[in-house]
Amino acid sequence: MGRGRGQGRGLAVLAAVALVAAVGFGARAARSGVVVDGAFDGVGAVIALVSLAVALVAARHSARALRWQETNLQEVAARLAVAVLDETRTARQQLLGDHDRTIDVRFVLRPAPAHTAAGAGAGGRLGGVVDYYRDLRPRRLVVTGAPGAGKTVLALQLMLRLLRGRTPDDPVPVRLSLASWDPDEDLGEWIARRLRDTYRLPAASARELVRARRVLPVLDGLDEMDADPEPGYASRAGRAVRALNRYQYADGKAELVLTCRTRAYEALEALWGVWAQDAARVEIRPVDAAGAGGFLRARAADPGRWQPVIDELERAPDGPLARGLSTPWRLTLASLVHEPRDERTGAYLRDPAELLAPELDTAEAVSEYLLGLLVPTATATADALSGTRRRARYTPEQVRAWLTELAVHLDHNAATGRTVGGWPLSGTDIVLHELWPLAGSRLPRAVHAALLATAWLLCAAALLPWATTDSGFLPLQLTGAGLFLVTAAVSVSVAWTVVMPRPNRMSLRPFRDPAGRRRAVKRLGLGGAYGFVAGGGVGSVTGHIAEGEGVLGFAAGGASGAVLGLGFASALLLVAPGVAGATDPRDVMRGNLVFGTVFGIVLGFVSGGSAPVVLGGIDPQDTERRFDAELVCVPAFALAAGLLFGIAGVRYAALLLCTRRWNRHRLPWRLGRFLHWCYGAGLLRLAGTAYQFRHRELQDHLASRARTP
User: From CA 182, how far away is CA 13, in angstroms rounded?
Assistant: First the structure.
């Protein structure tokens, strides 16, 4: 706050100086008349300076209001809670298959060897999970269960109840996927960055919220951090749990919620003595036959169709069908594939009695049967589920083939712990700008470098007709040619060596906080100074060549260079991370495309406009010839600059070029559109700026089928 007061005093001083100057000019104008020194409008100066003083005072008050808005934690937390509530409702609805019926699953306490949270009861149900959580001291809950047991649904239910009953001082529950966290990174910093990127909170506000423990991290998928189902002490999961134990208030452990598969958590606990300390670990129990039958009746439009299945569940509560339908996920899946109807005739597409087929004699066979029906069912009903204006038409074979390619890629990453250039590749998240290694760790980078090299060759071809003069090559041309070659070589090298480019976009956010405005002033000054020196150097040479006026050329070139430097610095100030605030994973690529296009155009005009003079030796005064050269050079240089600055988008385009029919990996041209169609069809879900398979069992099913000969 001291820095903010200092900036406020600075604006006040500037306003006072402007007012004093206004008084001085007013007195001079009164003595000398309206026109001062025959050219200066004193009255106009008074008006301008008074206006400046008023503007500075207004800016001071605006800055104070903005600082208060960003540091008022209750207000920031309230805005965050609204955004999280909307996101949580959407996620829960999609997991339940656009239905409001849930299974009131039971959970039981599994005490840790030591340091279990006080107040933990023996167990409870989904409907009472918020009361169970509020009784804990400290409020630290670990939710475990079998695959598909409903861990995520229980966590979302807890979040919804906490958000609906939240008071201004309560922390805001925020769901975060642990698969994207490197335990070597400070947990608080990671949470703050995710708040900034996902919910567009100012960086200072996000850090302050986390520092004040006004955020309740709901950490989903500890088991998804490693390929090994029984992670070791030094595994990512093991290091993550130890980091969570260090996450605390000044006087004790901080609140959190953690989900994990039972097998992975028990391996850490039993084999390595690693568990979440001062937490209550609960385990979700399998759904019994009565609960499964009640759920199927509640979800069905015609419960009578399900009676044979319900009768079999009651007859053999430990049989293969009952075990195959013992989790909320598989029960939801059974409803999803057997309830849809033909939109024209109203006839049901499938009969639930097919679950009684003799070949479904194991729980695994029941699961595989249901998973095998999900893609064709979703494809057949996609028009009703998608909600997109321009509905894409995909066949079940296309959808299965493309999703299988993605599932195999993720499965390989998870099984091998694959990294590219030191960057760990996710085993669950489909992130468009991080997906290029699917086509190999070298081929997409080689394609990107080749595209950029081709663009520079086009630039050279555009300059060749203007490169020679009657007196041969000028010294400036030789210098410029060297700079051209170095720039081209460095940019092609960047396209190859930058392994995981981070997407950028255009944003006004850097100007919205005091620190950003200070950086803006500094960078604008440096940009103008560099531009003046560089432009002056070029102007002195060209002025000396054209008119023999080196000094005047330096002045003219310096002025032009300063303007260009200020413009380029202004453009750089508008750069922001492309993932920040993106609500649609495709927005990241769109933002990067706009970013690359804008920078390409700006640099195309700057470099393409000066290249005919520097490299072509054209007289700056020969406007007609220079204009003809610029018509060719500007687009060529704009293309090269766009391919360099839009590096994440170009790498994504390289992936699409490498996944055509002639490659063993095949994906659709409009991959982003397809993935969003899958999201609308209920095959994928959203997790920030990533797509994920709706359930890990679906991803594993597709990957295993691809491995089967």
Answer: 47
Angle, CA of 675, 427 and 664, to the nearest 5°: 65
- What is the rounded CA–CA span in Å between residue 485 and residue 108? 69
Burial of 101 (0-12, 13-18, 19+ CB in 10 A): middle
How crowded is residue 115: how many other Cβ atoms within 10 Å of its Cβ?
A: 14
pLDDT, tens only, 632-679: 777 888 888 888 888 888 899 999 999 987 667 789 999 999 999 999
Cα 537 off chain centre by:
42
What angle (nearest 5°) sits at the alpha carbon of residue 548, between those of residues 542 and 552?
70
Q: What is the mean pLDDT of residues 391-409?
A: 89
In terms of Cα–Cα distance, which of 295, 646, 703 is closest to 455?
646
- Distance, in Å, from the CA atom of 247 to the CA atom of 190, rounded to the nearest integer, reads 12
Instruction: Using alpha carbons, list the distances in angstroms from residue 670 to 392, 515, 675.
Output: 10, 40, 9
Which among 9, 18, 24, 10 is positioned nearest to 55, based on CA atoms? 18
Q: How far apart are CA 109 and CA 112, in angstroms?
A: 9
CB of 356 within 8 A of CB of 308? yes
Whose tokens are 């990241």? That residue is 588
Secondary structure class of 145 (helix, strand, coil): strand
Distinct helix (H) and strand (E) counts, the chain: 25, 17
Nearest to 589 by CA among 515, 673, 667, 519: 673
Number of other residues whose CB lies within 10 A of the CB of residue 407: 22
Nearest-10 Cα torsion for 471, 474, 477, 481: 90
